Amino acid sequence: MVPLDLGRIQEILRIALDEDLGTGDVTSLATIPPQSLAVARYTTKQPLVVSGLPVVEHLALMVDSTLKFRYLSSDGDSVNEGVPLAELSGSARSILATERVTLNMLQRMCGIATQTSAFVRRVAGTKAKVIDTRKTVPGLRLLDKYAVACGGATNHRMGLYDAVLIKNNHLAFHSTLTETVNMARGSIAGTMKIEVEVSNLNQLEEAILAGADVVLLDNFSVELTRQAVAQSRGRVPLESSGGITLENIRGYAEAGVDRISVGALTHSVQAADIHLRVTPS
Amino acid sequence: MVPLDLGRIQEILRIALDEDLGTGDVTSLATIPPQSLAVARYTTKQPLVVSGLPVVEHLALMVDSTLKFRYLSSDGDSVNEGVPLAELSGSARSILATERVTLNMLQRMCGIATQTSAFVRRVAGTKAKVIDTRKTVPGLRLLDKYAVACGGATNHRMGLYDAVLIKNNHLAFHSTLTETVNMARGSIAGTMKIEVEVSNLNQLEEAILAGADVVLLDNFSVELTRQAVAQSRGRVPLESSGGITLENIRGYAEAGVDRISVGALTHSVQAADIHLRVTPS
Amino acid sequence: MVPLDLGRIQEILRIALDEDLGTGDVTSLATIPPQSLAVARYTTKQPLVVSGLPVVEHLALMVDSTLKFRYLSSDGDSVNEGVPLAELSGSARSILATERVTLNMLQRMCGIATQTSAFVRRVAGTKAKVIDTRKTVPGLRLLDKYAVACGGATNHRMGLYDAVLIKNNHLAFHSTLTETVNMARGSIAGTMKIEVEVSNLNQLEEAILAGADVVLLDNFSVELTRQAVAQSRGRVPLESSGGITLENIRGYAEAGVDRISVGALTHSVQAADIHLRVTPS
Amino acid sequence: MVPLDLGRIQEILRIALDEDLGTGDVTSLATIPPQSLAVARYTTKQPLVVSGLPVVEHLALMVDSTLKFRYLSSDGDSVNEGVPLAELSGSARSILATERVTLNMLQRMCGIATQTSAFVRRVAGTKAKVIDTRKTVPGLRLLDKYAVACGGATNHRMGLYDAVLIKNNHLAFHSTLTETVNMARGSIAGTMKIEVEVSNLNQLEEAILAGADVVLLDNFSVELTRQAVAQSRGRVPLESSGGITLENIRGYAEAGVDRISVGALTHSVQAADIHLRVTPS
Amino acid sequence: MVPLDLGRIQEILRIALDEDLGTGDVTSLATIPPQSLAVARYTTKQPLVVSGLPVVEHLALMVDSTLKFRYLSSDGDSVNEGVPLAELSGSARSILATERVTLNMLQRMCGIATQTSAFVRRVAGTKAKVIDTRKTVPGLRLLDKYAVACGGATNHRMGLYDAVLIKNNHLAFHSTLTETVNMARGSIAGTMKIEVEVSNLNQLEEAILAGADVVLLDNFSVELTRQAVAQSRGRVPLESSGGITLENIRGYAEAGVDRISVGALTHSVQAADIHLRVTPS
Amino acid sequence: MVPLDLGRIQEILRIALDEDLGTGDVTSLATIPPQSLAVARYTTKQPLVVSGLPVVEHLALMVDSTLKFRYLSSDGDSVNEGVPLAELSGSARSILATERVTLNMLQRMCGIATQTSAFVRRVAGTKAKVIDTRKTVPGLRLLDKYAVACGGATNHRMGLYDAVLIKNNHLAFHSTLTETVNMARGSIAGTMKIEVEVSNLNQLEEAILAGADVVLLDNFSVELTRQAVAQSRGRVPLESSGGITLENIRGYAEAGVDRISVGALTHSVQAADIHLRVTPS
Predict the structure, then answer these.
(1) Do A100 and B134 touch (CB under 8 A)?
(2) Which candidate in B167, B185, B226, B254 is catalytic?
(3) How far apart, in whole angstroms, are the C-alpha atoms of residue B69 and residue B87?
(4) What is the mean pLDDT of residues C43-47?
(5) Is residue B96 included in any domain, yes or no?
(6) What is the mean pLDDT of residues B187-206?
(7) Quick one: D197 and D114 in the same domain?
């Protein structure tokens, strides 16, 4: 599982706190005495794969550096319903100030990890890796992708800046796919691979001959994917993409591709059911 | 429909662009000639309620202020599959640079508006208003809530700072609900209402007598909600909350409450299916 | 007294330090040896109500986290001339770097609290609460309002976003006050009260019948205020506003209003006289 | 009059708008139709010296770049009661959104300029220049100092970084004033003058002999100031500072000093009375 | 030549202006009348390769959006001494405010491009590409690398995030190079190549067998480089790195490597001699 | 040596880290186990004057506050080849993440200090001080100037805001130099000196008579400089500027000027050769 560098996401965490706290939590300030202490536990209300605990800890300490955070599980763990994931203790006002933001974050991240894990289990025993896409929620790219990794899948490129992926929209400005690939090779850093998206078997052959490092089979049926695998004869890694669901992913994996990218891992997330119970102490 | 003040969300839009563009779109820079022009259309691939077009326009102009954006529909419209929502024209590189970020935003916002609209239709003919919660994606509070408004529902408080909502977690630090309400009233601004969350009919009565301005019925069954409405005799507006689904919302509405809050409007969003077709011009 | 969340004012504190320190305190760097230590005391040179000590502590630690700050009094205290409020010790250079910014802040905040306290004492024994306005110094809204709270008054709304106040400028766009109130009620969150500003007794009646939650009597004389109180018969809380001074506030309070808002609490502040004496140690 | 570089104060203006607008002006959004237009005039309700109109224009355009701002007077003008200073026209919602922030800024700045002008008139006919101090409101240093310049006085240093001023607090770390001055001269840039604060005539002599470029007479009486002027015989420019009021400033000026610094210009400001009348158009 | 996305470098440009302008250009404000106009020309005082004109234009417009900038040459051009590169016209104060920052930037960028061009010419006729490193000035990575591209060389990775380069420091934590490469391949995105740095011919062989996509020959002599080329037999692209100078680069190129990385392109830059002559107009 | 206030350079340090780390160091994350520890030493590979160790420490702790930094030398020290300057220990991943950014900074700063020291040694025994200019790398003004101070020279003004320097470009807008100086004196703060740049002996005389506090001899030959010194007879400090090199600086110093400014100290920097060796521990 790829680690998360919390230093890279400070700005979005601050915005998340600011948008909820604004000029302060009027209810707690008005009803909780300043010295009140509390203990709070994040507890699952469904089976899930854990993701986001270090983010929760970090958010809590941003609000109040005197809070104590105790891990009762680890990111990547598969846990049942009713399991305490972590415990937060200290100032009651501070705990209540962090409640909603930390839950919103944790529920989304566990939701992503849990769904990803289901996809990964479906392809068990094949050589196919499940990978994610750039279809993440604006502002949460790193967190969404980290949650995918917690669920057992592999990250694709982080953004437009760290990989070359030539799609139809790029080909449209050139007479041939070969010309496009050659033009790209001429200016990019030698450390970058060139991935090319193809729509049919002819394009697949052209991409291979043009020297593509990876080929993405865009919206191929399972049957067509099988033909593509046969035709490519291992000359290039193949990636299936487009319309992949829990129902059909096994078919693609068994067709023999190397990777399968799934936008739904991050663009349509079911928040995991997690509860925070706060007890005065 | 509540308007959206784009000036209030500049920071998150910039982050969204930064995380995708990073040091630049290496593929387009390497394969699209700088003078190339294109036209692109955001087109629906499912029936949906539109939300987010001004955000898309703003994002596109942030990337390149010479792009032209043309509205072909308006936020709040209900449209069918295959309908063009907007058109973007100008530099091909700039259009491709905005493609994923604008789609990610538009698909989420239309997804929220569409789902919200389904909830609103279920309570048609009753006096109940559908309202949202603070269970939004970190960083997107204003956008999520605006999308809810596009779907025909009403916004609840924006954050912890603009309304008082006394919950179990606050009551736990006091001997009685009445004492908690009185303490709150003593320090908050006179412009704020006090909403109190109750778990049973006794608490409901105590809240009304303590002078709560609104009462939230937390996880009441439809039957218990009916009793609460009867007992309160219009002395205070009532809000149902907790476990509301498309299946059961009509029951709560017919029980006679004034408002029904639905976390799922924003915490578990199905991205709407929208396509961007780019054509050289 | 409403607590102050220092996390909410980081940006303005940083700007305040930056504008004074710029690229560094050339005098201290040139004349104070780096290892020099000092002790400094903030001492009153007039009787005053204390406000701002946690802000002073925070500013000092932002400049140098190794400084030690000791409270010798508390925000909200009424103290005489010649009283030490707090002590700062550690690096002489760091103490001198913070001197002017901390004094500027403390003198303004104590000035506000002291003047507020005078207004509050004038209405003692009546039911009227003294409240503040949005006439604060740009950038210091939260600090100005916190200082008002230290002086014993109550805060009105924080900004345009957390309360509805319908004024002449809004009515001017509608044919009737009733229409304006109804339009507002249709779109705002159910947690917000509606306050309406009225200019005469007819408008007062219309506002009450339209369901205003609070009514602001704009520039009413004391005599007219008495009539307004009589006419409203407790149907709605009343707020006096406009031209309130130390001389006339008692008259308004005795007329029977619930709240009196005073712009001068924050728009015209006399800095309290406080001294920082620095001693090498 | 020193010009104001608006580019240098963007951050504080944005904060000022943010703290008032927050997530949006709920009243205007709820009661003013989006297409409504209005005209608004900033009009004086007292005689005053104008300062801050370019800031008002800039704030208004930050909120809505389609607003039109028309100058009806200029910064530095002395105007009577009832005079329109400027006109703002365009979207009614946008005008109302800027009303309070622009008035707060304009009233403070005109208040400073007006008070400064009174001090300047008191020393007319003498060679003394009135100068300001660093006793400004945190965050508004540049604006406060610009308003002082509009009032006809001269700015002293902007902060700790752009001038050397050796005070008692620095002398306390050295055995002699001469040693302190020499130490400073050894390390500062050759473009900076050295100003030294003295408490008595002996120190004055030592400062002159040590080569101070300017001497500040700290809390000298008018009589002692006369003696200092006689003793210095023009060898160095002299500055009076400490406890200067409208009542006693003429005495210091006639004693023959070159400059008189007045903290009250900025630390205790009476907001000027200015009104914004908004008319639908 | 790779294009520069100015939107990606806004922050460093703002800092560059802020550090020079601070609270304003006191000399110009004090000596140039506000309405004065001027024309200024950036003119070469040595032969050079142009780089940075769009950055100069952008900086100038950030200071004053009414300035007019006219290109008299283009980035990438080779020009002689005495050639005007661009012309700036408009407010004299604004032009003087931008003079030093724009010259500092332009002189550095042209210096890099010019030096790069010399390296590129030395390898003409061989297959070797000259590439840059991460040895750039802190904060100017994108600009330094863009200037390298203007000089005709190719960019290597932008940072630690967009490519894998396994060096001695990584190998030190593993028993074999093969193990290290395998571990890397297991977790990185499939779009990334793996480059491995080797110190001798044995490591070269191990790297090739382990499946490295590129091999970096660290501090190899020209003779050893020749042997490496022979041994690798085209199985993998080879990069020379370490101690490359104008004197020895041809030797490496003729040895047959594919790429040669040169730290000196950016870590030791001779500013190009460019003059800005300002004429009142 | 002028001290460095690290609080003033936080933003550029963060940018420097961000541009290198981006979304994370993919190589270390993929090949170094998270618990691995290491020790690293910054060691010289040439004789040099040290500058920047506190910046290296600060950068390292920004990346990981648990790293330990140990000083083995001090800024300002002259050291030989092969000398360890500092030691960094702790998480191997964190150390590798800081390697390039800290080396880039340290190599530049030591390069500046070393070159500056060479210039300073050339003028030993004369009264001339070596001073720097504003020809620094954009964004690094404070660090470049601090490195100059480490090398034994004196800083000139920091920017356009903290000193007055009247150049040809200002004179061009006036009929006489005297008029320009008088205009400047009328509006600047009394704490600022006025420096005037002159091109010949006539202008020198006019500048002295106009009361310039310092005169800059722009591009004077050594012979002409001698004449200027003779003519000025100590009436004003003189500064030589323009075309100063290691070869000719002694001539200027012996001609008798007070200061010599050298742009090459910072605009054309040879990075010092320093190595970071990382050892697992």
Answers:
(1) yes
(2) B167
(3) 6
(4) 98
(5) yes
(6) 93
(7) no
Q: Does F11 touch chain C (CB under 8 A)?
A: no
User: Which CATH number characterizes residue C12's domain?
Assistant: 3.90.1170.20
Distance, CA of D169 to CA of C92 (rounded, Å)? 9
CATH of the domain at F178: 3.20.20.70
**In DSSP terms, which residues pair with F241 in a beta bridge?**
F218, F261
Q: For residue E3, name the pLDDT band (cuts at 50, 70, 90).
A: low
Residue B21 lies in a domain: yes
Q: Write down the pLDDT at residue D7.
A: 73
Q: Are residues E12 and E113 in the same domain?
A: yes
Same domain as D199, residue D172: yes
Please check the confidence at residue F237 and state whether its pLDDT lies above 70.
Answer: yes
Give the mutation candidate from E191, E236, E260, E261 for the A interface (greatest A CB count, under 10 A): E191
- Which residues from E are below 8 Å from F138, CB to CB? 12-13, 15-16, 19, 101, 104-105, 108, 139-140
Q: Do D29 and B2 touch (CB under 8 A)?
A: yes
F22 interface with B at CB cutoff 8 Å:
yes
Is A193 inside a domain boundary?
yes
Q: Do D187 and F259 touch (CB under 8 A)?
A: no
Segment 118-147 of chain B within 8 Å of chain D by CB: 142
Q: Assess if residue B213 is contained within a domain.
A: yes
Angle between helices B201-210 and B222-232 (to 10 degrees): 30
Query: ipTM of the assembly?
Result: 0.94
Among A64, A218, A254, A273, the one annotated catalytic: A218
Confidence of residue F145 (pLDDT cuts 50, 70, 90): very high
Rounded Cα–Cα distance for residues C163 and D25 (Å):
9
pLDDT tier at B117 (50, 70, 90 boundaries)? very high
**Looking at CA atoms only, how far is residue A232 from chain F in angstroms?**
29
Give the nearest partner residue to B162 out of C162, C187, C195, using CB atoms. C162
Cβ F69 vs Cβ F125: under 8 Å: no
Q: Is residue A213 very low, low, confident or very high in pLDDT (cuts 50, 70, 90)?
A: very high
Size of the C and D interface in Cβ pairs below 8 Å:
211
Please tell me whether residues D216 and D257 are part of one structural domain. yes
Nearest by CB: B3 against D22, D29, D62 = D29
Query: What is the C-alpha separation between C81 and C44, in angstroms, rounded?
Result: 5
Based on the residue annotation, tell me whether A247 is a catalytic residue of this protein: no
Which pTM was predicted? 0.88
Q: Is A218 a catalytic residue?
A: yes
pLDDT of residue C95: 96
Domain match, D32 and D62 both? yes
Chain D contact for F14 (CB, 8 A cutoff): no
- Shared domain for E80 and E171, answered yes or no, is no
Cite the active site residues of F: 100, 135, 167, 197, 218
Q: Between β-strands F164-166 and F129-131, what pairing exists: parallel, antiparallel or unpaired? A: unpaired
Q: Are residues D194 and D116 in the same domain?
A: no
What number is the average pLDDT over the span A3-11? Answer: 78
Share of chain B above pLDDT 90, in %: 87
Q: What DSSP state is assigned to residue E1?
A: -
Please give the Cα distance from B171 to A32 (Å, whole number): 9
**What's the pLDDT tens digit per position in B141-169?**
999 999 999 999 999 999 998 889 999 99
**C-alpha A213 chain-centroid distance:** 24
Contacts of A166 (CB under 8 A, 6+ apart): A177, A180, A181, A184, A194, A195, A196, A197, B27, B31
Structural domain tally of chain B?
A: 2
* Structural domain harbouring C99: 6-120+270-280
Q: For chain A, what percent of residues have pLDDT higher than 70?
A: 99
Judge if D237 and D275 occupy the same domain: no
Residues near F18 by beta carbon (within 8 Å), at least 6 away in sequence: none
Distance of CA B54 to the CA centre of its chain: 15
